Amino acid sequence: MMYGIYNGYGDWGVGSMMGWFGGGIMMLLFWALFIIFIVWVVKQIGSKNLKSDTNALNILKERYAKGEIDKKEFEEKKKDLS
Description:
By secondary structure, the protein is mostly helical. The protein has a domain at about 35-80. Helix content is about 65%, strand content about 0%. Helix 1 (about 25-65) runs antiparallel to helix 2. The longest helix has about 45 residues, at about 25-65.
């Protein structure tokens, strides 16, 4: 014998949204968490690139301040970085 509630449409269950472990609700939760994870990964990758660019520019400024490179070389390298 099947357990559940017969809904009169030829199938057993409590409804379309409350099937096995919540059915549609769990599917929506899964996709929401998946999208949140993807957004988090993209932000992490983006922040690493931003930190890298900022770090390179800071190093260039330090080298210019120390006198290791002249103004012409500083401007050329700064243009290359941006």
